[in-house]
Structure formats: structure tokens, C-alpha cells
Amino acid sequence: MTGHDPFDSEQGERARQTVMRLLAATGGAAGDFAGEVLAGRRRPHELLAHGPLLDEFVRDARGWWKLLDALPAEERQRLAAEAWSSFERQVGELATLDVDDEVAELEELAAPAQGTPASSRRTRDDDDDDWSDRSYLEPL
């Protein structure tokens, strides 16, 4: 590990914005949270303190953990040795990715799942800042 945070740079911030744009386009609790980050009302690290999202990410992480445990020891060691450089490369790729088309496609895919056309979704206003106390099943 190199000891620096790849997000503590202009390139890292562009990568973070790309990820948040993609996540916001998916809708749901995670998408709503990402939208709040993009609007400047939340910080990305607060995601792990948001109960419904934390539960979902922990469940997903357990699935990844099981997949990694199923790999042969040599493969796990190789992946561990390459993890940091792979992470830095992915941050660089995200920073240069043009996601406008992908965001539009994700919004279209998420709209039927939410029962609302993408173009007519209600935009949130700054006065609605109690959203984090709501159940993730409650519509915003």
C-alpha cells in the first residue's frame, strides 16, 4: 500500500462524483443518499452511518467475502498483492469516464422499478432535510 488516499486529489474527486452520479441514477435509498451528496447536503462517508444502506452494504460485503474465501489461497494472495494498484487504476478510470449516457440509461431502468417516469420524479428541496430519519421504504 502506498499510504495515500487516491480520493485526496482532483482526479479522486472526479472519480467520487462519477460514482455518486451513477448511484444517484439508480434510485432507491442509496440513490437518494447519493443525490444528497451531489447536492452538498451530505458527505460520502456518512453513507456508512445510514442504517438501511449500511445493512445492505454489510449483506453485500458478506457475499463478496464468501466468494473470496472460495478462491484458492494462491489466488487470494495474488489479488491481495494487486489490490492497491488495482484500486488506484480504477479510481483513474472512473475520473475519466463519461457517464452521461450511463446515467440516463440507469434513470430509465430505475423509473419503472420506482413506478415513476424518470422525467417526472419529484425533485427534493432544501427544506426536506429530515429524510435520513425516515424508513428506507417510505417514499421521499
Largest sheet: none
Assembly state: single chain
Secondary-structure-derived class: mainly alpha
Radius of gyration: 17 Å
Proportion in β-strands: under 5%
Keyphrases for this structure?
140 residues, mainly alpha, globular
Q: How are the SSEs ordered, and which strands pair?
A:
Elements lengths: L9 H16 L2 H11 L12 H20 L2 H24 L3 H15 L26
Helix pairs in contact: 1-2, 1-4, 1-5
Quick structural summary:
The protein contains five helices and no strands.
Plain-language structure description:
With 140 residues, the chain is mainly alpha-helical. Helices cover 61% and strands 0% of the residues. It is built from five helices and no strands. Helix 1 packs across helix 2 (28-38) and helix 1 (10-25) crosses helix 4. The radius of gyration is 17 Å and the shape is globular. The protein starts with 9 loop residues before the first helix and ends in a 26-residue tail after the last helix. The relative contact order is 0.15. Mean pLDDT is 79; it is low at 121-128 and 134-140.
